[in-house]
Design goal:
This protein has helices at residues 40-52, 87-95, 104-117, 137-140, 146-150, 161-175, 227-236, 241-250, 253-258, 263-271, 275-299, 309-314, 316-323, 335-339, 364-379, and strands spanning 8-13, 20-26, 30-35, 67-72, 83-84, 122-127, 184-189, 193-199, 202-206, 304-308, 346-347, 356-359. Strand 7 and strand 8 (193-199) form a beta hairpin. The strands form 3 sheets. A 6-stranded mixed beta sheet has the order 9-8-7-10-12-11, sandwiched between helices. Strands 1-2-3 form a 3-stranded antiparallel beta sheet, with helices on one face. Helix 6 packs across helix 15 (364-379), helix 10 crosses helix 11 (275-299) and helix 11 (275-299) packs across helix 13. The chain has 15 helices and 12 strands. It is an alpha/beta fold. Bound molecules: adenosine-5'-diphosphate (ADP). Adenosine-5'-diphosphate (ADP) binds next to helix 10 and helix 12. Adenosine-5'-diphosphate (ADP) is lined by residues 190-192, 219, 262-264, 267, 309-311, 314-315.
């Protein structure tokens, strides 16, 4: 840093499953291992051993690492920005376990493991919810009795903030406009999916809520659903709260509709005439289209609509379906530009369009590194 030069990247996946996978890549070498990875701590130990291995030659001693930036999913109302980790901060992250039961415990394990390995480094938490700190109360409150917000923290928090922040800054730079003058709709379509409405550089609304289950149709999550359906499932179908939780988070979305949560597989099925997959794609795009309409109403004249993450960056089919028949709103895609594959930020709308349609690759790791570096420099 500050050049953001990438020395190594890696991934540990399928933690807790029968067979897991860990890999690391540097400019000259790559290593991967397939083994059962029992829990997050085990995965982190694997990575930290690799980081220090003489073979990969990434560092001579762990003390060369000045800071570690951690993605922490839930910062509640406490953390509005990147924060240096102290025992007090760790306790607060623990208190927020109930709001992010799948993510915050694993994030805390990452912090504990990194503290053990990189004893000379400062640790920083970059919160996925922090970007939504600017939501106005009329956007973050639910129409529920007030005590549920005041006493139990029931409100919209939003997620994927690190990605929305990164792509909004990168898109503003691409447009050649200061971010505080940009009105953007950012659409993050990964396995999880969300949108953000950004007015003058500040996020004023988002599709994920108190939990990451609402808004867009996702790989395995329902997105928006009438809450009465959940009560019906409890009272009439005999599902417990835990079963409903698993259903709406892990068994629904594209997986529930087609049997497959991978968008590549869904597109393949649809192209081969599979009706369920064709319907699922139309439903997926229609939900995004509705939110584009509502966000235009919320933020006024839009500079750009930005697609990002696995599906957003790679699926010209989804982008085409989303932007279909929206010329009356000034939204139009150039088919040829849309079909051109690239890993670079690019515009896929006709050059004369007032609303640009951009494909902006996200880089959450770089955003975390930059925020960590900025905070480290400010602390010195
Ligand atoms: P996450 O980080 O949320 O796990 P990603 O941002 O990596 O997810 O996105 C994963 C999704 O991207 C998967 O559904 C995958 O099918 C989809 N995807 C990746 N490449 C393509 C492609 N070429 N066409 C369509 N979908 C793609």
């Amino acid at each position: 840093m500050p050049q953001g030069q990438l020395l190594a990247s890696g991934l540990v996946e399928q933690i807790g499953e029968n067979m897991g996978n860990a890999k690391i890549k540097t400019s000259s070498q790559s290593k991967s291992e397939q083994l059962k990875i029992n829990h997050h701590k085990h995965g982190l130990e694997l990575i930290s051993n690799w980081l220090q291995s003489p073979e990969l030659a990434l560092m001579k001693h762990q003390s060369e690492v000045s800071a570690v930036g951690h993605r922490v999913v839930h910062g509640g109302e406490t953390f509005a920005k990147t924060t240096e980790i102290t025992s007090k901060v760790k306790n607060k992250i623990k208190e927020l376990f109930s709001l992010a039961p799948l993510h915050n415990p694993a994030n805390l394990e990452g912090i504990n493991e990194a503290e053990k390995v990189f004893t000379a480094a400062k640790q920083f938490a970059v919160f996925d919810t922090a970007f939504f700190n600017t939501l106005p109360e009329h956007a973050y409150r639910y129409a529920l009795p007030e005590y549920l917000y005041k006493d139990h923290g029931v409100r919209v928090y939003g997620f994927h903030g690190t990605s929305h922040l990164y792509v909004s800054k990168a898109s503003a730079k691409f447009l050649g406009k200061p971010i505080h003058q940009c009105n953007l709709i950012t659409i993050h379509l990964g396995n999880g999916a969300s949108m953000a409405a950004i007015k003058n550089g500040r996020c004023i609304d988002t599709t994920l809520g108190m939990t990451p289950a609402t808004g867009l149709i996702m790989g395995t999550r329902t997105g928006d659903i009438d809450p009465g359906v959940l009560i019906y499932l409890g009272n009439n179908v005999g599902l417990s709260a835990d079963e409903i939780n698993t259903l709406i988070n892990k068994e629904s979305g594209m997986k529930g509709l087609t049997g497959n949560n991978d968008m590549r597989a869904v597109e393949h099925l649809a192209a081969n005439g599979e009706k369920r997959a064709q319907l699922a794609l139309v439903m997926y795009a229609y939900r995004i289209k509705k939110y584009i309409g509502s966000y235009i109403a919320a933020i006024g004249p839009v500079d750009a609509i930005v697609f990002t993450a696995g599906v957003g960056e790679n699926s010209d089919t989804v982008r085409q379906l989303v932007c279909l028949d929206m010329q009356h709103l000034g939204i139009e895609i150039n088919t040829k530009l849309n079909a051109t594959r690239s890993g670079e930020i690019r515009s896929i709308s006709p050059p004369e369009s007032i609303i640009k349609i951009l494909v902006t690759p996200t880089n959450e790791e770089l955003e975390i590194a930059q925020q960590t570096f900025t905070n480290l420099s400010a602390n010195v």
